[in-house]
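Quick start: load a record and inspect it. Here is ABC transporter permease:
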Amino acid sequence: MTHAAAAPANLLLVLLKARTFIALILVFAFFAFAAPNFLSTANMVIMSKHVALNAFLAIGMTFVIISGGIDLSVGSIVGLCGMVAGWLVLYGIDPGLGWSIQFNTVEICLIVMLVGVLIGAVNAFLVTKLNVAPFIATLGTLYVCRGAAMLFSDGRTFPNLNGNPEYGSDTFRLIGAGNVLGLPISIWMLIVVAGIAAYVARRTPLGRYIYAVGGNERGAALSGVKVNRIKFFVYMFSGLCAALVGLIISSQLVAAHPATGQSFELNAIAAAVLGGTSMSGGRGRIGGTIVGAFVIGVLSDGLVMMGVSSFWQTVIKGLVIIAAVVVDQAQQKLQARVALQAEAGK
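Running the structure step on this input writes:
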């Protein structure tokens, strides 16, 4: 195959690899013209907070999908963890002895994150020890967590989560509303989590094992990789990311509602797939997922500003996932063809 004949295929492959950046530029440019006040400073700040929420979940989802699984429970974990945070801020823990245990903000955050990690461990246990398909296991956990969130308050909201200065919980609202060096605290949290995740994925044996398990689980096991441990890690990490989102949202709203997080798993999957994560496992990048989260965030906020119905927003996000998977399959086929032609041309 000549270089001239290979050039169009190589150019198309480059465009497919850069599809997420291209999509982000196109979506941003479209709403900059079509939506009033889209480029205003206030909207940029609000949108950055929304992107952070999507990105947290998408980072955890990326690890799960790379390992060959799926986590449909993240939205419900967000709701449940938000309710746990609200309960701890308002009531603490009452052992029924006429007194209660109260917690400061740091302790509340640690407890909520532990809840997210434990739910992730339950997902991993179902998948690894009981051999339940990831889709079914996490779908079941979705319903359990959503029901548990409702039971916390009989479906009511926990309002006025301002905390109590006496117990050191009055700083809880700063998690979602505070700023450091001009950036929201949630953005700094995202930078830290994304940086750690990217380092783990690309620079550590753990990251390589995650890719190996998703690429060929049987081969990874024969190579000595502790497959079950890897799956426990990715599901627990996904649960941790969901817990962080629950904390941030309840802090931003200074309230916790059990329905929080509904359909968030759709946004997380969409962001991961848009960022180049293969639904068949074994391939994906944290950086691409972050860009994918920006695409979903810009798309969601732009549609809201244009007054598009929430029903249509859901339809559009579903179409985005389908399109991303189709394009990903096209990229894989083109890569295989180009590699085959390159070998034949030697």
